[in-house]
């Protein structure tokens, strides 16, 4: 159970060591560090690019999974095998992407004398706290999702025994996402290149959407605990939250709409889109298979009851979440951008010519 977290943690530390020692024979280090980069920022360069951020996410998720498996085996022994299988499937996806598509420890045949460096916007104190919190928040949604789907697959979704543990992990995920959003809004206000305000931006919305769904979930699941209601609805909510979290990772890794906040662009975003589609189909299939176990004998007392208010609140949260979810997934014309670029983005300044990227090996048009 601890083997995967230990191996991933070792790999992460090895990559950090490569950054600290300026080992430019490692491709990822050469692309995201340089000799003139302040030493303290060599640590945060770990997740400044695509492969390193995936390794960080996988490491955090493996630790969360190890803790969740221990809690499941003690409190939900009948659900534990199914929930663990769901978590293992998500883990296998990330490991597969890291090994076959984005190896952060890939070596170069010839080491360059210096590296490319990171985007100047990332040399900021916010880099130490906002990206880790946002990445942790997005991947942590997988834990309550696995618990809910695990209970559903075990045929125990209607017994309400998974509610306490599911809500606990839901609150953990919601809290991390909340902190990540607050830090992101603070960072956006301090960077002139981002317009000096919290914009309607794909990357900014990528954390807002699952946060709204998780907010609805942690409220709605209390009704299930106290009244045995909303069983179907809660499974739907936690599934939607995880799909939206996957959408956030897709947007951060080559989504169809460019973002001034995205510094890990790659073509593998479509791999995440495929996994998101697989998750949606699999969750729907499990829901339809076990829908009979989710039926409740309780009914809403009236349209003015507390439970009706909770349901109305949930619908409003999802309606708000659906509003930004369309914008980041709809391609826009590149003519609306003040420049064209390949690879790393330039620093945007409203109404002015953009700064070119630092030490960029990309071609500029």
Automatic annotation (TrEMBL):
GO cellular component, one term: membrane
UniProt keywords, alphabetically: Cytochrome c-type biogenesis, Membrane, Signal, Transmembrane, Transmembrane helix
Membrane spanning stretches: 42-70, 82-102, 135-154, 174-200, 206-223, 230-250, 270-289
Secretion signal, residue range per the UniProt entry: 1-18
Sequence ranges assigned to domain Cytochrome c assembly protein in this UniProt record: 51-251
GO biological process: cytochrome complex assembly
GO MF entry, a single one: heme transmembrane transporter activity
InterPro entries: Cyt_c_assembly (IPR002541), Cyt_c_biogenesis (IPR003567)
Chain positions covered by the region annotation Disordered: 322-365
Bias-annotated ranges (Low complexity): 322-334
Record keyword Cytoplasm present: no
PANTHER family assigned: CYTOCHROME C ASSEMBLY PROTEIN-RELATED, CYTOCHROME C-TYPE BIOGENESIS PROTEIN CCMF
Protein family (similarity comment): Belongs to the CcmF/CycK/Ccl1/NrfE/CcsA family.
Protein known as: Cytochrome c-type biogenesis protein CcmF
């Amino acid at each position: 159970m601890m083997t995967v977290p230990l191996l991933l943690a070792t790999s992460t530390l090895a990559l950090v060591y490569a950054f600290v020692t300026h080992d430019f024979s490692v491709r990822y280090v050469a692309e995201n560090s340089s000799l003139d980069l302040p030493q303290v920022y060599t640590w945060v360069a770990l997740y400044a690019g695509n492969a390193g951020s995936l390794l960080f996410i996988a490491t955090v998720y493996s630790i969360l999974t190890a803790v969740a498996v221990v809690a499941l085996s003690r409190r939900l022994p009948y659900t534990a095998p199914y929930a663990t299988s769901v978590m293992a499937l998500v883990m296998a996806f990330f490991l597969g992407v890291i090994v076959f598509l984005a190896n952060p420890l890939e070596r170069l045949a010839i080491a360059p004398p210096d590296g490319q460096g990171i985007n100047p916007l990332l040399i900021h104190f916010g880099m130490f706290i906002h990206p880790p919190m946002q990445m942790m928040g997005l991947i942590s949604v997988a834990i309550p999702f696995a618990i809910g789907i695990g209970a559903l697959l075990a045929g125990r979704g209607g017994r309400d025994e998974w509610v306490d543990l599911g809500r606990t992990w839901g609150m953990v995920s919601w809290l991390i996402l909340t902190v990540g959003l607050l830090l992101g809004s603070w960072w956006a206000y301090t960077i002139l290149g981002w317009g000096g305000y919290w914009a309607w931006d794909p990357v900014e919305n990528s954390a807002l959407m699952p946060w709204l769904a998780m907010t609805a979930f942690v409220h709605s699941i209390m009704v299930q605990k106290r009244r045995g209601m909303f069983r179907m609805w809660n499974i739907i909510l936690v599934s939607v939250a995880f799909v939206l979290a996957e959408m956030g990772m897709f947007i951060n890794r080559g989504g169809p709409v460019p973002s001034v906040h995205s510094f890990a662009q790659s073509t593998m975003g479509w791999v995440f889109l495929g996994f998101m589609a697989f998750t949606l189909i699999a969750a729907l299939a499990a829901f339809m298979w076990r829908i009979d176990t989710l039926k409740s004998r309780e009914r809403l007392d009236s349209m003015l009851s507390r439970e009706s208010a909770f349901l109305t609140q949930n619908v409003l949260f999802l309606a708000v979440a659906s509003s930004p979810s369309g914008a980041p997934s709809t391609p826009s014309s590149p003519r609306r951008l003040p420049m064209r670029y390949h690879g790393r983005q330039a620093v945007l300044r409203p109404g002015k010519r953009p700064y070119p990227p630092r030490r960029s090996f990309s071609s500029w048009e």
